[in-house]
């Protein structure tokens, strides 16, 4: 399955992070001891600490281990200009062995994932943990091409600018390769980058899509 993440660009962040607008995230730390958050063919639940969201994803694929992947994620605190998280929730489950498109509802940002492996289809189901923040933001989104070009490739993706966040994902599934290719989408203060990271399996180009809207953030 191909997994594409939805990233967000929030102009308000410039105020809170003044002087850092031209810099990448100063640092990001994966899970404890830089290890994976799951083992092959087992379920897992990962949530960022309160007030933080996902900014980096790393994954490696093994056909020998049931066409499954190991995963790790990194979190970063959101800027004060984004406000405090007002609520967090689990979105609907995206079933294994199917293609799906998921965006955090209510203008939420991705702050975690949980997943279960199903040996009958050699695939995982996914559920997003989303958090909504108190400040308003307008945004538009489009697909990016920041993902591996073939199924089974390793993934090491981070959001290189402080003002982009993950907001959702879309996937395609290969019954032959038994894995998903994923792409990611995001919201931005005035635009949001829709990039891709391999989450369920590996990736292939998804094309470009654009749009815009305005809503509470």
UniProtKB/TrEMBL annotation:
Main location class: secreted
GO-annotated biological processes: collagen fibril organization; negative regulation of cell population proliferation
Keyword flag Signal: yes
Location(s) in or outside the cell: Secreted
Keyword tags: Disulfide bond, Secreted, Signal
UniProt similarity note: Belongs to the dermatopontin family.
Record-given protein name: Dermatopontin
UniProt source species: Crocodylus porosus
